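Hi R.,

Here are the chain sequences for the assembly we discussed:
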Amino acid sequence: MSKAGANVLQLFIKPALMGLLVAAVVLAVLSYLNSDPQPRMTPSSSVASYADAVTKASPAVVNIYTQSLRQGPYDPRPRNSVRLGSGVIMDDRGFILTANHVVSEVDEIRVALQDGRLLAAQMVGSDRLTDLAVLRIEADNLPVIPQNTDLQPRVGDVVLAIGNPYNLGQTVTQGIVSATGRIGLAERSQGLGSGYSDFIQMDAAINEGNSGGALVNSAGDLVGINNASYQSQLTDQGTSGIYFAVPYQLAYRIMQQIISEGRVVRGYIGITAEQHYNSIQEARGLLVSAIDPEGPAAEAGIAIGDFIYAIGGEPIQSVNQGLDLVAETRPGELLEVQFYRDVRPMVAQVQIERLQHQ
Amino acid sequence: MKKLVLLFLAASALVLTPAHAQIPFSTNSKEVPTLAPMLEQVTPAVVNISVEGTRVTQQRLPDAFQFFFGPNAPQNGTREQPFRGLGSGVIIDAEAGYVVTNNHVIDEATDITVTLKDGRQFAAQVLGRDEQSDIALLKIDDPDNLTAIAIGDSDDMRVGDFVVAIGNPFGLGQTVTSGIVSALGRGGFGSDRLENFIQTDAAINSGNSGGALVDLRGNLIGINTAILGRAGNIGIGFAIPSSMMNDLVAQIIEHGEVRRGILGVRGGNLTQELADALNISRTRGAWVSEVVEDGAAAKAGIEAGDVIVSLDGRPLHSFAELAAKVGSMGAGRSVTLGLLRDGDELEVTVELEEHSVEAVAASMHAALQGAQLSTLDNDQGVRISAVEDNTPAHQIGLREDDIIIAVNRQRVTSVGELRRLLDNAQGVIAMHVRRGSSTLYLVLPN
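And here is the predicted structure of the full complex:
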């Protein structure tokens, strides 16, 4: 590196004409030095653009149309209802991730690819708590969304939402990650309110029809699955600059489980807890506020008022983190729970059960 | 080693100079990327437009009034309601004082005031307008020391490119918002409209209409025109591409109106189902279902069943895009169309024909149906180049070679001006016509 730098230096003090060459060389060196994975300028033009990321990702984002025959409360004749959404082709076997509310309780699902192909899709399985569903289509030469399993979205990252709002046709909107780990904004038993989905919050505009579509970063890698069903809960008009997506890592895990087992199996511990700062122990953790008397935690000796500071050896900072740890434990396995009862440190081995009524 | 550091600073200055006319990517250097230097150049070319006028609303009284009041009943009449409006505009020619805006911004306006970013105000006149594409061209009275915008090529834009919208939302004053190109070639919202919009997520609101959409170099690539969503911006806005605007403005400058080119085909989008049925391997393009007899397309050899896949070398996505492009190009232009016929690709050159002139006259006023109009070379009026027998135009007394010189005592200089005067006229219209060496008045029924 220093040798190359010295060469460059010699060139630089030579007459002005050489300066241009130097600039070119240095530009190359600088961009090489830059470890930041974000692309800056497209090689085809000097102006920055996300066109390359769009080109990579957008063919794998599909439009989803569903049909269902519904019986209205007053009219006994069934009515045909059509719903709209988006989906993301995850691999070349034809598995598609989408939002569960797009495809739940429908009779027919059709998928439109960006190359114009229109295909029937099969429902593989769904998970109500994260509002995700997996579909499958049978076709050759499928475009697959670029994925990076190590990707951790950070607040401030540029993201592009790709989907089919209002059936306008494929639309790309841009914004940044506004927050990560959003949970429990609404009292709901699924999706955002369930506590089982640590949503990405962003300001890239999504609308009805975007649900199930892709959120990608500026390299075109999948960051999340967009979910447009929460805007209306936040503002009357849905024009707030606050939108949500299920993070890719979570969505991928859910998809793998659905593909291999047809459904998502979650562990159940049987406590209700809230985040708490214990000033005596000077530690953050969870305060048990209610307990299922028949549940595994009660059986292992945990009681209301206990202050849990570690589960499975991991320090617990938030309800969400605890919920994840328990949910990901396979039923039947033992989970070590460390807690204080008043000032007395205690340990319980809890045999996790299967979460019912998902 | 110190020298080396110096070198890098100098070089990074070299590298950064173009870069911060560019973009908000993360940066490790001390300088934060900003659009401000570009915007300082561009924003003086974007103006606020305020309009005033009176909108005539028809008032129909219930028949019961007639019954109770007899002949003394209040008359069915028109009610004049004054209105004010706000919008934006873009200066495209500083010398001539040409300002592009949306037709819907200046529609029905009698007074148009253009306010520059530096606060100066000018009165402006409508040079010509086109309802179907929603473009209007204004001329500032006594232009002085204006800044024009540089016009870019909207055909080079790609989905994902950064764009900046400049306008006057809600009359707040000049406002700049940024976003990306969300989609291209959007249209088909209004059946009789010419739409080939650039879709963007840059926030556009009421009052932004007629304002500029620029790329990161500050070049105009669109005129902001419409949004989806009743409550306000939901991240779906639409702009008329600058290439389409260019074509329309050129016609308005030349003729005082848009002389639409006609291709002479009917059809629709090539869909998957259609492609399957016709055994075509593509799914994007404009499918021709019918070719108008003796039309431009027929003369060039286009046949029903052909799929038009490109126009002047640019791929076409939809029939709406074809209609919008052809419809804004102007009569007489030659275009090269790429066709798909029975699996073979071929190219034809078509000379776009003029919109049937009779339709032009009839669209101005029902009583002019049957007359063919042309602007006199020296702007001395509008010549009637032909009148068909037994048509409304013939019945009101128009004859071939008549020259319309005034409408309601206002001079007519061109076909465009005639349209404007007829549009603005209320009640009975008296048309001053020169026939040979004498002049006469013809009255157009209300």
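Residues 1-22 of chain B have pLDDT under 50 and may be disordered. DSSP finds eleven helices and 26 strands in chain B.

Let me know if anything looks off.

Best,
T.
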